[in-house]
Amino acid sequence: MPPQKEFCHRFLNKQLYENVHIADAFASILQLVGIGIVLMYMRYINRQARGLKDSSSTAVYPFLPIYELYVRAIFVLSCFWAVFGILPETNYLFSTTYGGYDNATYPDHKLWVSTRIVRSVFVGMNWGSFHTLFWFVLALLCQPGMGMVTVRRASKISIGVGLWTGVTFCLSFLFQSGESTIGPIIYSILIGSWQIFMAVSYLIVWLVPQRLLPFHRRPAARTYAAFWSVLRVGSFLSTLLSFLNEDLSLCGHWLFDWLLFSLFWPVAMVLTFRLDTEYWHGGFRDPDPGPCACWGFRRCYSSHYQRHAIIGDRNIRPKFRTRSSLPEDDVRRPLFDLDVSQKEASAVRRGMDSIPHSMLIPYCNLHIDAMRILGTGGTSNVYRGEFVKRCHVTNKMSTSVVAIKMLTCFELTPDVVDSFFQEAVVLYEHSNHPNIVKCHGITVAPPTMCIVLECCDGDLTTLLSRRAHEEKQATMTMTTMTMSNVKKIKELELFFTEAIQCATAVAYLHSQSPPILHRDIKSPNYLLSVTGVIKLADLGLAKMTDLVDSSGGGGEEAAPSPSPSDEYTLAWAAPELIAGGQATESSDIYALILVLWELMHPGQLPFDDPSSDYWETKKKIQEGERPSLHGLEAMVAGLVVGETEGCRLREEARRVEMHLRAMFEDCWDHNPMKRWSAEKIVEALNEMLKQSYCIFSGSL
């Protein structure tokens, strides 16, 4: 009497596979039912949320639109393969355990070969198509953005993995069912290498901390990777178990590859998509939870998210999402009570597509001092903070003092978000220039969006105000003509040195291809580094409409809210901008020359007339009125003393004065075509500085 087969082999292999081929059909139907329930659930929730749009413009969708499209796609794919698995005419094509050549079953050997090839191809197509969609989600969650660039990149990655999976399984089962003695060995190598790759990939995404990863991982990626790690590790262990106990190995494969997958894959989808949607809408407490906390989402994410969205509550503030749960120096703390609408979240997701991964700084690497505000603007505040980073050379952690520029506007409109990412990318790509403020990167944890900059020692407006005060005090004690002459020489030399630095930054931006327009050049946007170097910052983000920026210390009347074509700071705005024109290189030059005028007149601001209000100042600018150049005359006058070389030196000084006057008058001319280029200004300033050296040496 033959020995009794063990349970797994007898029940699974004989009863399910060989008799009625019901295992694949059972798994396909179970998976199809689960995905169908998920699709109906998502559509119901989204339909309820859409119905609240009329009553609340900030109604939040519980699931991002792309996830509903994804579930539809995988539902259609599951229907397709389920039909092929159920029909008797095609069911045999998907059986992954079929024997070798048999004369009774296949009288013709060629028929057996052709059938074996067809079955292997269909098995490869089945596994490849599903794993293309499985990896699409993982690739999507391991990128910073969520726009079309991210979708295309995730599609390329997932298609590559899907093709490799399909070819691997096609060849594996082709060799498994062959007559060759090395067929099972090749099968084990192919399937084993595939399982190791999958298991290791998911385990890395699940377990490795963000700071050690070479890519950006969103919070929901850990939830998704945890599910697949359990399945892939279990499947791999089942394969290894086949060398010890083939019966238990068969049970393990059925448990992990079919039963657990079919039952819990829809649940994992719901959790993953829900958590990623919450991430983009700011409904989270910890965007990088531990590997074991990702399934307890009520502890690390906001709870009752869908209920709040359905009933139309604009403020998603569940009990687990509280300010007191954050450390005092957490960078998300200043804006933690703000919510992100669907429109705002969509703008942020698209904006994240435009930045390289190297720019992203985990929020946990920043420590903010919310009480130390270094500056304010129309859409942002600048805080003092610390940036903890790892040195690539010594592999040690270091801490540096930084300036954290945080968006503080009440609404993250697409224009504001686009300006944020544009400024960040421009600063980051051109941080190596000595006259451009250094950008370490950005931190995005909605609604918190920060640009991490080098910490500078104040702005140019503050420096000039302090210098004017010091000069006023020094004038009271300066009596002799020689001391006055020395003072004038130092003033002129300092003017040329600082003017060249200011103009060099603009010339560098304009020299790029295509040229980069700053669009908001003014003295408050020139910062002073700790070493005394002047650096240009705020590339087109904080467009203020006050006559004077708040950091300048002036008390002028504030202007009304600007129109889209009216985004400028009036005191430095070119006439064509005031008239509603577009920003150009010439408008940047106009603003630059007014900054150079400030260098020549410390403590004064362009059009700083207390008797003129906002509208009167606009009228004066458009009528051609410009600031007085009395500072130029005072700076050059009296430089030369003595009788021997006085005439020649006075002539040289007068020539410098004429060149400077021509530069100012041309660069703030009402006609933009007459204005100089930034490069020409730099060349002219350097030439005038050389001419001035003989005046300095002769006068001293």
Summary of the model, kept short:
With about 700 residues, the chain is an alpha+beta fold. Helices cover about 55% and strands about 10% of the residues.
Report on this structure:
It is a single chain. The chain is an alpha+beta fold and 700 residues long. It has three domains: 14-280, Rhopdopsin 7-helix transmembrane proteins, CATH 1.20.1070; 322-454, Phosphorylase Kinase, domain 1, CATH 3.30.200; 460-699, Transferase(Phosphotransferase) domain 1 (Transferase(Phosphotransferase), domain 1). 54% of the residues lie in helices and 8% in strands. The protein has 21 helices and seven strands. It has helices at residues 7-20, 22-50, 65-86, 88-91, 109-141, 148-176, 183-207, 219-241, 246-280, 297-300, 305-310, 342-352, 414-429, 460-477, 481-510, 575-578, 585-600, 614-622, 630-636, 646-667, 678-699; strands spanning 366-376, 380-390, 397-407, 439-445, 448-454, 526-528, 534-536. A five-stranded antiparallel beta sheet has the order 1-2-3-5-4, covered by helices on one side. The chain has a two-stranded antiparallel sheet with strand order 6-7. Strand 2 and strand 3 form a beta hairpin. Helix 20 (646-667) runs antiparallel to helix 21. The longest helix is centred in the middle third of the chain and has 35 residues, at 246-280. Residues 54-60, 96-112, 295-321 and 541-566 have low confidence and may be disordered.
Number of strands: 7
Q: What number is the mean pLDDT?
A: 75
**What proportion strand?**
5-15%
CATH class division of the largest domain: Mainly Alpha
- Round the Cα radius of gyration to an integer and report it: 35 Å
Kindly report how far apart the N and C termini lie. Answer: 121 Å
Order of helices and strands: HHHHHHHHHHHHEEEHEEHHEEHHHHHH
Helix/sheet category = alpha+beta
- Total discrete domains: 3
CATH fold-level topology of the largest domain = Rhopdopsin 7-helix transmembrane proteins
Q: List unreliable stretches of 5+ residues.
A: 54-60, 96-112, 295-321, 541-566
User: What is the percent of helical residues?
Assistant: 40-55%
Largest sheet: 5 strands, antiparallel
Q: Based on the coordinates given, report the CATH architecture of the largest domain.
A: Up-down Bundle
Strand order of the largest sheet: 1-2-3-5-4
Total number of helical segments?
21
Q: Which shape, going by the Cα principal axes? A: elongated
